[in-house]
Amino acid sequence: KAEMELEKNVYRAHCLVLTYPTQGHINPLLEFSKRLEHKGVKVTMVTTHFISKTIHKEATTSIALEAISDGYDDGGRAKAESIHAYLDSFRRVGSQTLAELLQKLSTSGCHVDCIVYDAFLPWALDVAKKFGLRGAAVFTQSCAVDNIYYHVHKGVLKVPLSETEILLPGSPILRPQDMPSFVYDFGSYPAFFEMLVGQFSNIDKADWVVDWMAKIWPLRTIGPTVPSMFLDKRLEDDKNYGFDIFKPNTDACMKWLNGRPKGSVVYVSFGSVAAVEVEQMEEIAWGLRMSNRCFLWVVRESEEVKLPKNFVEETSEKGLVVRWCPQLEVLGHEAVGCFVTHCGWNSTLEALSFGVPMVGVPHYSDQSTNAKYIMDVWKMGLKAPIDEKGIVRREAAEQCIKEIMEGERGKEIKKNAFKWRKLAKEAVDEGGSSDKNIDEFVAKLVNS
Ligand code: UDX
Fold first, then answer.
1. Do 242 and 271 meet the contact criterion of CB atoms below 8 Å apart?
2. Residue having the nearest C-alpha atom to atom 4 of ligand 1
3. Which ranges does the record mark as transmembrane (predicted)?
């Protein structure tokens, strides 16, 4: 009881932060949670039982972790017969077990003020409202992508697409192939399409919308959600970054990078979920070889079989292939000069924040739109051209890497990279836009 009293006095408010159970969604919410904690708010992160068992939680992380059920406690999404079955189960069982968790916390005297939830899970807001709690929707993809789904939700942008040029407020002219794959290739993943458009189904009931359009909803932009300790080496001792689903091969990666000259290494990663076609893996492997550069390539365990035979052995002088790396430390390392990326939103934001030029090899979902922005809006890299089969060929990969590392366009891109790095740091620094928005969010949470 004494402990509970102390807790009440120490913390200004208590937020439950509910994540969608993949690495790319846990990371931004974890970072938001850490920033809330710095401002005196108690945070309990909530994920699924299956994911909570796989997480490598750093011992020093003070954020509490609780689990709810998606109906597949022994294997998660991989155990469901379809994406639709999984998402449906997560909505039903998740709503129920989230309500039970709230009940449990309330009975033990641990009062919750607000549920911060990934906008992929709008049912969390309905649960929050049933308990009389406030709800904050966090959009974990880019504003540009959310804007597209919002206009689909409103019926303004009709799918399947019939236009060859799409003009939406705040966006440059987009071609169909710049759209998220679920819109461009309408019908490819109907369950994901519904989930993404469904982000807006009850949004008008949310008390806060984090990272969206201020004119419509009570928006707070909190990005980039990259830990300031990585952007600013002042906070070197703050090592409590955690909750990795995959275990990073930190020592091997950093040791390997430490010996390389500034800007000489190509870093390659396709994120935590992409299952790249075998042919595409081969072409990337050849492109890397032909570029004649040193490379650090993250190939998840499940993807290893797709590497060309003997590739690792034959390229060991120039390359290091690992199953998972500490990406923030890698992107922050001066040896890295170029990032060949699938353009997942976290990777994109992280590269923008560290000022690392990108070669975009988008796979699906929001990644094509991100690649379009990387090349044509932020001018921070190139989108690798594809052939008629949708594959980035080895020559194209080689050419893009060379263009960035030593070409004329590379010089321009590096200049822009420097600018974005500075802007990102300013946003998250004390008094910056991101920092101020979090302050306002906390003030409203505490005072109303
Ligand atoms: C998914 C979707 O694919 C993406 O399109 C969407 O925008 C977010 O959710 P994912 O594919 O995993 O995410 O990519 P990304 O968003 O880039 O997130 C990957 C995260 O894992 C990044 O934060 C990155 O830093 C981290 N990572 C990746 C590592 O820490 N180590 C690695 O070796 C690779």
1. no
2. 344
3. none
Looking at the annotation, which residues are catalytic? 25, 118
pTM: 0.93
- Up-side HSE of residue 262: CA atoms within 13 Å toward CB? 1
**Ligand 1, atom 18: nearest CA belongs to which residue?**
24
Instruction: Please give the distance, rounded to the nearest whole angstrom, from the Cα atom of residue 275 to the centre of ligand 1.
Output: 13
Strand positions, DSSP E, 25-89:
41-48, 64-68
361: its two tokens: 């090899």
* Any ligand 1 atom below 6 A from CB of 274: yes
* Ordered per-residue pLDDT tens for the chain, 448 residues: 445 544 555 889 999 999 999 999 999 999 899 899 989 999 999 999 999 998 887 755 778 999 999 999 999 999 999 999 999 999 999 999 999 999 999 999 999 999 999 999 999 999 999 999 999 999 999 999 999 999 999 999 999 999 999 999 889 999 999 999 999 999 999 999 999 999 999 999 998 886 545 555 556 677 677 766 665 543 344 445 567 888 888 999 999 999 899 999 999 999 999 999 999 999 999 999 999 999 999 999 999 999 999 999 999 999 999 999 999 999 999 999 999 999 999 999 999 999 999 999 999 999 999 999 999 999 999 999 999 999 999 999 999 999 999 999 999 999 999 999 999 999 889 999 889 999 999 999 998 7
Helix axes 408-428, 345-354, angle to 10 degrees: 100
**Distance from the alpha carbon of residue 273 to the mean position of ligand 1, in angstroms:** 8
Ligand 1 contacts CB of residue 228 (under 6 A):
no
Amino acid at 169: P
List residues bridging with 17 in a β-sheet.
45, 116
Cβ(345) – ligand 1 distance below 6 Å: yes
For atom 13 of ligand 1, the residue with the nearest CA is 24
Looking at the DSSP bridge assignments, the partners of residue 338 are 266
Among 338, 350, 354, smallest CA distance to 294 is for: 338
Residue 448 CB burial class (10 angstroms; 0-12, 13-18, ≥19): exposed
Calculate how far, in angstroms, residue 323's C-alpha sits from the geometric centre of ligand 1.
Answer: 13
Q: Whose CA is closest to 228, among 88, 5, 85, 434?
A: 434
**Ligand 1 atom 1, closest CA:** 24
Pocket test for ligand 1, best of 148, 346, 363, 367 (most atoms within 8 A of CB): 346
Residue 101: CA count within 13 A, CB half-sphere: 25
